[in-house]
Amino acid sequence: MRTILSAFVLLCLLLTCVVLLPGHSLAQSLRQDPVDQQNPVGGAVPGDTLGVNSQSDYWRAVREGVNGNVSIPDKKAGTLIQSEGEAWRSLRNGPLSLYASWALLGTIVILGLFYAIRGRIRIEAGPSDKTITRFREVERLGHWMLAVSFVILGLTGLNILYGRYVLKPLIGDGAFGFITQIGKYLHNYLAFAFMAGLVMILVMWVKHNLPDRTDIKWLLQGGGMFSSKLHPPAKKFNAGQKILFWLVIVGGVSLSISGWALMFPFTTHFFAGTFGKINMILGTELPTALTVLQEQQLNSLWHSIMAVFMICVIFGHIYIGSIGMERAFDAMGSGEVDLNWAKEHHALWVEENQDDIHDAPGSGPAPQPAE
User: pTM of the full predicted structure?
Assistant: First the structure.
């Protein structure tokens, strides 16, 4: 499993590095003005397509759009021109793709610098000859269902955003088309596993992730992350893990809602309803009369933004659970963690769970030679 997670991080790093290469086609397209700007000369539109009049009022009306009446069941066909589509395309292929690349690469760089400065967080007291049960089977099942589905969803989603710029030139049109089609099916169906895992961890861990006064001391001491001598007491989850938990829950729910709207298009009006509530609370004037096509465009953008945000958050989680902290992976690997590790990071939880302490495998007395 650690190999899969490491491959996920390395692939994301490769994607962002390749995308941002100065000579790469996506980097060039993101930095170039896609329209050759030409000014009218003598009242004539460039290219002489409209004679001597620019007809700005005409094109302004075209961009505002007009909904006609159609007799077919698909009422969206009544809109011949939907100019928001160009704005959506420009935003998705321009700022969104560029800033997402910087966010992914920046997160990896920050974690790399932290590791270079702080190093791996070791067990100060050294390994113990005892372990304590950290997570039981059902808890690990919920975690790994969420984690594995998220990794696959993240990879297939990044392929949608960057694949044609990164993979397609490397493997060719046919292989890229096949991989993308398989990725589409995986993305659609594993989304339900992701939602199921999200519900499982919410039900199992919500009571352990409610804020309490021990979190204040943990935060003031930086969780002991910057000093090997500090070990602020914590219960089953410390303040940092609680923040991660709620980011995953809120972000996961947002991803699930926008993803559901994309899987079942033209059936939801989440943004119109949300904008209406925001207007009522904050007194803003966000648009609430959105067409189903506008809803889809907003869902697509929001889903991409939240996905990149969640990937950056999970990068930090993967770092701490692998190379960042000694023996941290055991918690979700075997479910048994070293007792000294638990005392240093979750002392209050250890005091409450003395019955779950066991001898570590192979730590019993040495066998005596036969007489």
Answer: 0.81
